[in-house]
Amino acid sequence: MSSAPLAVAASTPEDYRRLGISPDHIALWEDGARTDDRRGTYEWWYFDAHLDDGSKLVIVFMNKDLSAPGKPLTPLIRLNLDLADGRTLEKIVNFAPESWSAAKDHADVRLGDNRFTGDLNSYRITVSVEEIEVDITLTGTVPSWRPQTGYMLFGPARSLEFAWLPSVPQGHVEATYSIAGEKHTSSGVGYHDHNWGNVGLMKVIHDWYWARGQAGPYSVIASYITSHKKYGYTAIPILMLAKDGRIIADDASKVRFETENVFTDSRTGKPVAGTTRYIYQDGDDRYEVTFTRREDLVRARMIDSATGIKRLIARAVGFDGAYLRFTGQCTVRRFERDVLVEEHEDPAIWELMYFGHAR
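^ thats the sequence. predicted structure below, dont judge the formating
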């Protein structure tokens, strides 16, 4: 008799009852604070956008650094701005604990004068860090969604949790940003999700691919999560496909994941797939969502950003985590009885987070 898996996506009726959530409706409070900031927990609110002027923007409000969930409240903002002219700006700004507040009944996170607030459809994000100022409005065009309960559970007692809520799988963005007084205004396509947990990710996850994008009338969220070795390298595939703003496919049991053109990245030493593909088979209907790498935006060893005692400890325990972000093409193909009936392609950005050693 086979033993129960040590890594699962929580999806049973009992899981929904225990968490107090509905399988058919996402409540406003689900995007509010889900932890109490105590040691051992972490939480963050994430936003990204592809702007029409060619810029790409990522903003994250975090109650702690991901590598240190055992710390008390140590809030920070991460901001990445990739400009069309080739400039790349990255900011990681720490704040005093008393600067942090997060409402529980809806998304309203504040770090000093910086704010991330919304109601599962309309959001306002304002950030001023060093020489960069950003003012964002995000309006959802695809309804809030989660993969089943949104919780991934680890261990024989299923007591270790990592949760994910894509509050705005896709939305329209109006953005104003300035760099040392150099002001820009643009619109574009954006995304917001919310994550929290009670165990350090590097303790339960070996690696993940994560992507969002659009192609023609289709919107996509896709991920392939591989658990830590001690949880059997169990795979958790996730795919959400919407068409014209309506979700049409999200049953993880129908998803198959493939990679092609795998190579070893020279900087991080990690295996990287030049092509990742999510195949969704539903009877005679099949969707293939393919991400084809064209360029690397980020190739970073996590230890390189550590300093002092944290860097020494990481070296001592042999930690060699890495983060890679790519740009390329997202292609959505729809087949009926193996006949291609629809195909769309647009630019996209996706990532590979690698906590473990290369297998």
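Residues 306-318 have pLDDT under 50 and may be disordered.
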